[in-house]
Every structure is written in structure tokens, then in C-alpha cells.
Amino acid sequence: MSKCYVGSEIGQLRRVILHRPELSLERLTPSNCEGLLFDDVLRVEKAGKEHDYFAQVLRDNQVEVLLLRNLLAETLENAEAKKWVLDRQCTKYRLGSTLAEELRSYLLTLSGIELAENLLGGITVSEFKNQYPSMTQAMKSIHDFIIPPLPNHLFTRDTSCWIYNGVSVNPMAKSARRRETVHLRAIYNFHPLFKNSRFDFWFGNQDYNYDHATLEGGDVLVIGKGHVLIGMGERSSSQGVECLAKNLFKQGKIKSVIAVELPKARSAMHMDTVMTMLDYDCFTIFPEVIQDDIRYWILEKGQKEKVKITAGHLSLFEHLAKILEVDKLKIIPTGGNIYQREREQWNDANNVLAIRPGVVIGYERNVHTAEKMREAGIHVLTIPGEELGRGRGGARCMSCPIERDDI
Length: 407
Fold this sequence. Notes:
The chain is about 30% helix and about 20% strand. It is an alpha/beta fold. It has 2 domains: about 5-65 and about 150-405, L-arginine/glycine Amidinotransferase, Chain A (5-stranded Propeller), CATH 3.75.10; about 70-145, Arginine deiminase (Pentein, Orthogonal Bundle), CATH 1.10.3930.10. The strands form 6 sheets. It has a 5-stranded mixed β-sheet with strand order 9-10-11-14-15. A 4-stranded mixed β-sheet has the order 1-20-2-3. A 3-stranded mixed β-sheet has the order 6-7-8. Strand 12 (about 275-280) and strand 13 (about 280-285) form a beta hairpin. It is globular and about 70 Å long.
């Protein structure tokens, strides 16, 4: 059995979790898309074909692709796992005691794949016929959701992220995404692929109210050599970064966490929308956000399980070059003039996925940035993203590596 381990951003990618857009995206409408964190409704069939192309590019490059829906369905064939998930999805505090009991009884009768489809795609009032009346249900229209869909599962990077020999199952910042973490916790705790593997849970695997300690995987870059780079912006908080860092240092295998201050803006939602790693000494950045004097802090293991925090005194690029043991970083900015740069960053030009050193996957529409990368010696494999890109996530956002080599 292959190990679950992610030692870098650019080492050979071996296994990855994707989620193909299906029913949950079909249920996006102009009236609900904002609440579900989308800017617009997508053409689901075309988005699915684009996603299939992405998955095939990965397979063609010797990357094993695991699909989230299948992993969840296989997990829910386990009676213990099914009970565990429903204990957290069908609560009286969310649904009221009457509806919670009725819905739970119904969902327990479903097969693993049927239950997975309902949890991912949602259940409307009209689709659920219960025996006993519920005020919660009576106060909804027939097209309202009892269980809302989870279209953001498309971005598998965020809900969980593997950091060296462990995983963080992340307390998400937005309520529309918090149920996703339950699914990933179930998969990592009960699915045979993970249950029989040895790894650590760094953060998020408890039934806590994490309050302000939020974290999302798009902000977490495992840059290698024992270091982790994390953005703190709209979705990941300083509290979440400190909690994660403390747990990482307990095991003594992590040298440092570099925490970077980002603007709290949707265009720079995660670190990987403005900065990703392409090669041993090469990053792509959106220069309007990632500048030489950007503020960052260095977190290291202190005494008595304390976290030692110091403000960075070198520029961020100088500090990264130092810990990556290279003379100087090669920085590739978003391509084009000022208008083209803003457009391409919005369409995830900097959100590329490295599959091995110097080889990345990105959207074909970002021609100016891809050209700059190629001029710098990076091999860019392009995928269509006319629909997928409208979800505001690129190849890195849509992939959760679970096995990747060190550098």
C-alpha cells in the first residue's frame, strides 16, 4: 500500500483526490449562488467535461486520481461510519428534533452511494416525505433544502490538506462549507485506504467549536525541507495558523511555519490564488498582493510546547530562498498589462498545480501568464476552464494531494 505523505509542493505527485461537479452544481441558481459562495451559475455538463479533461491529464502523467464521491460512498457502506456521519449531519440543533429523527431514519436505509449523493447534492422538502409533521419543514417552501448541496466540494484542496506525514481536516471559515469537513473526517477515519495507513491528524479532527481558529488548504503551501508557508486572509486566521503550528511542532518533524498577511478580499481568497510554487527555486505571484515588503511571521518550536513567533526581517523572497537552500528565487509575475494581469489573476492564472519539478497544470485561458512561465523554463500543461474557472478555483484548488515526494 502506498503511504499518505506530502513532502513538498513540487515533488512528483502520485495520488490526488478530486471531486467531479455533479448534482450540487446543478442546484446552483442566481438566487442561491451567493450564499453557496459562487459568483454565477455554471454550465454543469461542460464543467464536468472540463473536469474530466483535468483528471485525464493527471492520469497521463502517472498520477492516481481518487474521486471524493466514490471515497465517501465506500466509507458510508460501513455502518459505524454511516452512524458517525449522521450523528453530525442530522442534529436536533440543525433540523429540530422531529425532522432530525425522521430524516436520520430515512437516510439510514440508503446504500452508501445513495447516501453520498444525498449528502453531496442536497435534499429538498419535496424530495423527502416524512411520516410525522415538522415545524421546520412546514416553514419551508417545497423547493427549499432540508440538506443544502455542497458545490464547494469541487475545491478539494481546502477541506483537508496533507502536510508531510499528517493531515489537517480544516475548520472552514464559511458556514456553507463546514459540512464538508465531516465528510473528509469520515473518509480519513473509516475508509480502508486511510484507516489502515499510518499518519497524524494535525488539526480539526475533534468535535470542537473552533470559533475563530479557521483554516483552509488553499492557504497552506508545503514548500519542503520541513517548512510550511501559510496565508492569513479571508479564510485562514492567525488563530488557526497558531493552533496548527503548535500541533505540527509537537511531533518535532517541522522546522518552521511562515505565516503571511494577505488582504481580506475575494480576489485573494487563498494564498494559492496569489502565489504558488513551480520549481525548486521558482514561484509565480500576483505582484499587486505579493510584494517584497509583505508582512510575515516565522513560527518555530519554543520551550515547553510553546510556539516561538518572530516577525520576518528579511524580505519574504529572501527568507524563502534561505530556507529552501537556493541562492535566489525566480519570481514569475502574472502576465500581461495591468488590465490583463487583473483578469488573469481573477481567472486563477497563479493557481497552478505542479505535478513534478518545473511541470505545472493551469487554465489555457491565462495565455499571458503561461507565456511568462514558459519563458522561465516551466513546462505548462493547459486544461480548459471556461466553466470550471467561473467557480473561482484553478488546478491547485481542485486537487487534494495525498501522496507527493519530498524535494
